[in-house]
Description:
Blueprint: H1 5-9, H2 39-46, E1 58-61, E2 68-71, E3 78-80, E4 87-89, H3 145-160, E5 165-167, E6 178-180, E7 196-202, E8 205-211, H4 213-221, E9 230-235
Amino acid sequence: MPTGSRDRIDPGAPRTHQTPTDRPAPAPRAYRPEPARGLLGTLAGLFKGSPSTAPTSRRINCLHCSHTWRTTAAPGNSIRCPECSRMRRVPTGTATPRPQAPAPAPVPPRAVRPAPRPVAAPTPPQAPRPARPAAGPIDVDTLDLREQNRRTRVGQLVRSLGSNMLVWYNQPPGACEALDTTLPSNEQRCPRPIAVRVEFRNGPTEAPAYACLAHGARLASLADRSPYITATAYPLRAR
């Protein structure tokens, strides 16, 4: 038989359990009036204790004018300036400026090189003036042995041709060596400088004579009468 049934059957039977009236009564709660709940109160209770999800605004400036305003647009979106009505994009990232790298140390200026001096144009080489012959004959012994032998050989070759044209033996250097025996004695020595070299050859013997342009042609023509001696005139190069 379940407990409690005896109480209903036998009222004099002892009780084996506590009734709800025997339990200690709970302490009364303090009265707290509830706030009036409306639409605003309901929304406030929903967001009470939760982090704020309201969008934050940021200050931006126009890229086309000097106007500055605050906007809650998300970064990356394009908005219109309220002043000039031109579009610009909301910058992304944090508003804090990035740390700038330290400026590099200034490079010392290089030493300025002086301007190069203008190079003068080279002057064209001038032809050397012909040596002025001496006034009179010279001493042949003062010449070197090679020059003495040349004069001796060319004098013998020209004399062997048997003509009125001979070669001076003691003519100064740079003067015409031709000797014209048909002229008076004071005019036989030519005062003009040398211009050609007449090369006389007789077998292995070879000797040049130096004369002016007019006498050089005459000396070269003397070899036409001899079958053994040849003569060739060569112009002298300016040194």
